Amino acid sequence: MEVDTEIRARWVLPVAPDETVALPHYSVIVNDARILDVLPSQEASEKYSPKELVDRSKSIVLPGLINAHTHSGMSIMRGRADDQPLLEWLHNIWPIEGAVACEEEFCEDGALLAAAEMIRGGVTCFSDMYFFPDAGAKAAIRAGMRAVIGIVFLMFPSGYAASLEDYLRKGEEIRKHFKDEPLIHFTYAPHAPYTVPPSTWMQLKALSKENSVPIHTHLHETKDECTSSRVLDRTNPACHLSDEMCHPLEDLNRKGILGPNFVGAHMVHLTDEEIDICAEKGVHVAHCPTSNAKLASGFCRIDKLLRAGVNVALGTDSACSNNSLDMIAEMKMAALVAKNVAGDPTVMPAYMALRMATINGAKAFGIDHITGSLEVGKSADLISIDIETHPGNFPVYDPHSAVVYAASREDVEDVMIAGKFVLKEKTHCTLDLHDVLRRADYWRTRINKQFPLN
Ligand SMILES: [Zn+2]
Ligand SMILES: [Zn+2]
Predict the structure, then answer these.
(1) In this predicted structure, what is the pLDDT of residue 89?
(2) Residues 6+ apart with CB under 8 A from 401
(3) Predicted confidence band of residue 452 (pLDDT cuts 50, 70, 90)
(4) What is the whole-number distance in angstroms between the Cα of residue 318 and the centre of ligand 1?
(5) Is the pLDDT of residue 320 over 70?
(6) Residue 277: CB atoms within 10 Å
């Protein structure tokens, strides 16, 4: 049978249905943008005649990584406000955003930079939340990336929208505009309970149900957010806008907003009871351990969440709080943090970290029937990681361990999304990298002129 592509691997890690499985000397057969077969390479050569045979018999082939939480437009501000607590950080970033993120080109150029970085690091899908969601969508389409675009909501006016009604009107227009784009998916993305009022939350609860669009928000990121909301300390900018004296998660639960269509980013500060609520309601968590560690927000109790049966996905957060959109590094960080929070090295083995960075992300955003694993019928969203060139990857006993604990994003050699190579042999196929960097440099110069560094 003639097919489009055979990728012949040393190892294939399908991730689902069983995340512990590693298939030696297997091939992935791609036809019409989908995975047609995953089978031993020897059988593949008898059964299929591919138009293109990609020999990766010294590499590991796995599903593309899914960055479950990022703000792509912010990539241009990478390194502008480091080593500060979250609220101080926000107050350094917001004026710059007010001056430049009010322009759609800034957001699109930032998203292009983010896309180029993520593709180079094996990310095939990202869940985005930023001003001008159409800029993120356009950049993703240009890059050939899958994206879950957040229809953002904030109580503050911005260059993008003048009021909450305007955020909604523009967001729904964007959603309609891109509805036939196969790589573009959506969430409603109210920024946080301390920046979005209860009336909007109730509106989004109804819209989420009506349109089957998940809600994605920042939740319980800092201790301040919980303690100030519990006593309604309005002098604290992290205090939720609800009039209920309780934790924001409890408030959202009372409002009936928590469910399988809800993704909470961070969820660092959770009581045992709140973890049970998340499990009961089928809430998803977008865990961002590097961002949390950099802002000293604390460590999410991943072991408890996993044991309660909560679906935990993995995200980098923005280039301002990480400072890289490196999902391979994030997997290692997640595993190390989980082990240390639990005081138990058996917590979150390498294959579990990979599961969080792939199928769990797809599940969180309701696209696990499309992507997130190397299963027959799914979109061919996959990557290969070279384990032969760098001595730091030698030798390989367990390919899951090699990917999570030893490899770096520099070792990613190919990235395929919907059957199309967007990176091949470490070279971008869809983006002009020189142009992407030149655009980012233009904005860096402008920001430095307007906001000189001391
Ligand atoms: Zn975030
Ligand atoms: Zn393994």
Answers:
(1) 82
(2) 350
(3) confident
(4) 6
(5) yes
(6) 19
339 alpha carbon – ligand 1 mean position (Å): 23
| Confidence at residue 305, expressed as pLDDT on a 0 to 100 scale | 98
Q: What is the CATH number of domain 65-364?
A: 3.20.20.140
**Side-chain half-sphere of 194: how many Cα atoms within 13 Å?**
23
pLDDT tens profile 375-408: 999 999 999 999 989 999 999 999 999 999 999 9
Q: Strand, coil or helix: what is 225?
A: helix
Query: How far is the centre of ligand 2, averaged over its atoms, from the C-alpha of 355 (Å)?
Result: 11
pLDDT score of 74 more than 80? yes
Å from CA of 14 to ligand 2 middle: 11
**Residue 85: pLDDT above 90?**
no
Domain ranges across the chain:
2-62+373-418, 65-364
Q: What is the ipTM of this complex?
A: 0.85
> Where does residue 116 rank: exposed (0-12), middle (13-18), buried (19+ CB within 10 A)?
buried
- Identify which ligand lies nearest to the alpha carbon of 349: 2
Q: What distance in Å separates the CA atoms of residue 403 and residue 36, rounded to the nearest whole number?
A: 25
Q: How far is the CA of 388 from the centre of ligand 1 (A)?
A: 35
Q: Where do the DSSP E strands lie in 91-140?
A: 123-129
Distance 87 CA to ligand 1 centre (A): 13
For ligand 2, the distance from its centroid to the CA atom of residue 371, given in whole angstroms, is: 21
- Relative to beta strand 412-417, strand 382-386 is antiparallel
Pair of tokens at residue 67: 């960055």
Q: Which residues surround ligand 1, an ion (CB under 5 A)?
A: 317
Question: Which has the higher per-residue pLDDT, 262 or 97?
Answer: 262
- 362 in Cβ contact with 368 (< 8 Å): yes
- From ligand 2's centre to the CA of 333, what distance in Å? 18
How many Å lie between the centroid of ligand 1 and the Cα of residue 415? 25
CATH of the structural domain 2-62+373-418, one choice from 2.60.40.790, 3.20.20.70, 3.90.1150.10, 2.30.40.10: 2.30.40.10
Percent of residues in the chain assigned helix, strand, coil, to nearest 5: 40, 25, 35
